[in-house]
Amino acid sequence: MTEDRKSLIEYPSEFPIKVMGKTNPEYLPAILHIARQFDPTFDESKVEQRPSKDGNYLGITLPITATSREQLDELYRTLSTHPLVSVVL
Hints:
Number of strands: 4
Distance between the termini: 20 Å
Helix content: 25-40%
Order of helices and strands: EHEEHE
Oligomer: single chain
């Protein structure tokens, strides 16, 4: 993205990130740990969890305070490469 193009997101702003992975006792704590690394003001009480119909997967919505495009890009990369994560939206 060039400097001439404006971002569609105004920073700082609350930005929901959706993460899905297989149900595993280590999954949620790992995702919350990553969220805290990228957002020191992260509020776990706002996290939404949605198990799949059969309970094999867990969808998590993380309300992150986005401060820059670079922060969001790196957060997406970190989440996407985590071995317990299947999808990041």
